[in-house]
């Protein structure tokens, strides 16, 4: 049994996950549809695609410009070639200032396993996004790019929070949130270092942009003495005009909102004349395989703005959730990105190829074409000469109706003894159309 298959079976055996993931994914997908009502969506998607293509085409120059602007404003920029390099750098910064960090949601930090690195160095890590706080308390990984606890009921959250609170809280989401807010508020005030992700980084102005609904990103980046922002190198955009296109595409695609409650734009650490903000700001620009992917036919996957819309509509993701994909990114974006960055080639097959993901992607990434490409690469790498010959003959036979009918009839009698066909037809019909 493959790793994906084993993880999927485990996910499918969890009745609450099986009920909650599709329910909330569908809700998010409906919110997205409502969010774009009255908007010329195709024009906006075309503009978004163009903005992302511009950024990735010009990536080296834009990153240099971003770095120059940030450094001129007093930030320290670290270019990390690998996840290990990034995690080491961030851990060193943290250890210079204390043993505790508050953290807002960052997929890049998940990607580099930052929490494990920090905890191994004796640092207490406090996730402050409500969903991340829930999965951290449960000892789990995020199940969705923007809704990390999509698989949890309020009853499950209560069971996680009440031992922390040492008192009954109940199932009311408002009460659960009130507890989390009070619990986290103290930590914001204590932590010497705040760590955030980066939704966009504007090269023209040297601006780091954080998009949140809970305000925790703003707290992490303004209350602690030191702010560390971790960005995948592809997060950069050319200018504020492109940001103005991409920001509403992200928020409407992710949550259906015209704009999120908080959009924080940061240009370096606190200036002498300013009353608040961090004294030190570090921006970690993470490669971790992205520069290599940029030179392949899969470059367009770097256009992704991590809105999660493809997850919400994917029939595979809706059944198995995100962690079944085995790494940080679940759903169609994970099925493409993980093989490219992390090397798990089987994920190219974790798709029905229905192309629902293509239809919702705000920057028009041809996800199902990329998935097909990954499958082709894998077949070219792994198939032996005999297997290639068999599939060539199959293709020839099934492009001729009379041969198709004959082979299907033969397969009907042969599938009992042939394990491959038996497995294939366990969930499919082999029908002969006369
Ligand atoms: S691939 Fe497209 S739909 Fe999926 S997360 Fe990225 S931007 Fe959103």
Question: What is shown here, in short?
Answer:
The protein is α/β, with parallel strands linked by helices and 434 residues long.
Describe the secondary structure blueprint for this structure:
Blueprint: H1 3-12, H2 15-35, H3 41-57, H4 59-72, E1 76-80, H5 83-97, E2 100-103, H6 107-111, H7 114-120, E3 124-127, H8 130-138, H9 154-165, H10 173-190, E4 193-196, E5 200-202, E6 207-212, H11 216-222, E7 226-232, E8 236-237, H12 240-254, E9 262-266, E10 280-286, H13 290-294, H14 309-313, H15 315-320, H16 331-341, H17 356-360, H18 367-382, H19 385-398, H20 401-414, H21 419-424
Parallel strand pairs: 1-10, 2-3, 2-4, 4-7, 5-8, 7-10
Antiparallel strand pairs: 5-6, 6-9
Helix pairs in contact: 3-12, 9-10, 16-18
Residues 253, 304-310, 333, 360-363, 365, 367 line the site of iron/sulfur cluster.
Describe what this molecule looks like in 3D.
- With 434 residues, the chain is of the alpha/beta class.
- Among the domains are: 34-136 and 188-291, Rossmann fold; 385-424, no CATH class.
- It is 53% helix and 11% strand.
- It has helices at 3-12, 15-35, 41-57, 59-72, 83-97, 107-111, 114-120, 130-138, 154-165, 173-190, 216-222, 240-254, 290-294, 309-313, 315-320, 331-341, 356-360, 367-382, 385-398, 401-414, 419-424, and strands at 76-80, 100-103, 124-127, 193-196, 200-202, 207-212, 226-232, 236-237, 262-266, 280-286.
- The two termini are 36 Å apart.
- The model has no long low-confidence stretch (mean pLDDT 93).
- It binds iron/sulfur cluster (SF4).
- The site of iron/sulfur cluster has 15 residues, from helix 14.
């Amino acid at each position: 049994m493959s790793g994906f298959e084993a993880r999927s079976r485990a996910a499918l055996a969890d009745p609450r996950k099986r009920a909650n993931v599709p329910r909330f994914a569908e809700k998010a997908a409906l919110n997205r549809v409502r969010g774009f009502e009255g908007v010329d969506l195709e024009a906006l998607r075309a503009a978004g695609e163009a903005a992302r293509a511009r950024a990735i085409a010009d990536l080296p120059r834009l990153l240099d410009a971003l770095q120059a602007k940030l450094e001129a404003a007093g930030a320290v920029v670290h270019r990390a070639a690998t996840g290990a390099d990034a995690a080491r750098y961030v851990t060193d910064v943290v250890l210079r200032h204390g043993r505790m960090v508050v953290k807002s949601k960052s997929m890049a930090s998940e990607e580099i396993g930052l929490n494990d690195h920090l905890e191994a160095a004796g640092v207490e890590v406090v996730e402050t996004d409500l969903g991340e706080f829930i999965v951290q308390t449960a000892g789990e990984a995020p199940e969705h790019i923007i809704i990390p606890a999509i698989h949890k009921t309020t009853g499950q959250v209560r069971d996680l929070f009440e031992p922390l609170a040492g008192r009954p809280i109940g199932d009311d989401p408002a009460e659960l949130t009130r507890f989390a807010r009070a619990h986290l508020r103290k930590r914001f005030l204590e932590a010497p270092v705040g760590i955030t992700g980066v939704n966009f980084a504007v090269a023209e102005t040297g601006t780091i942009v954080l998009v949140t609904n809970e305000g925790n990103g703003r707290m992490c980046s303004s209350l602690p003495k030191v702010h560390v922002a971790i960005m995948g190198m592809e997060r950069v955009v050319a200018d504020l005009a492109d940001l103005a296109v991409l920001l509403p595409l992200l928020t409407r695609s992710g949550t259906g909102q015209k704009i999120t409650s908080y959009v924080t734009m940061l240009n370096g650490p606190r200036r002498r004349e300013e009353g608040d903000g961090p004294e030190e700001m570090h921006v970690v620009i993470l490669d971790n395989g992205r520069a290599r992917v940029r030179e392949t036919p899969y470059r367009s996957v770097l256009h992704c703005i991590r809105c999660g819309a493809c997850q919400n509509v994917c029939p595979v993701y809706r059944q198995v959730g995100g962690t079944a994909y085995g790494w940080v990114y679940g759903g169609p974006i994970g099925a493409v990105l993980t093989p490219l960055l992390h090397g798990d080639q089987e994920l190219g097959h974790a798709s029905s190829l229905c192309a629902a993901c293509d239809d919702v992607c705000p920057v028009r990434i041809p996800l199902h074409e990329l998935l097909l490409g990954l499958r082709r690469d894998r077949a070219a790498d792994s198939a032996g000469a005999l297997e290639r010959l068999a599939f060539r003959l199959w293709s020839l036979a099934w492009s001729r109706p009379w041969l198709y009918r004959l082979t299907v009839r033969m397969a009907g009698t042969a599938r009992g003894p042939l394990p491959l066909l038996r497995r294939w037809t366990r969930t499919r019909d082999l029908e002969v159309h006369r």
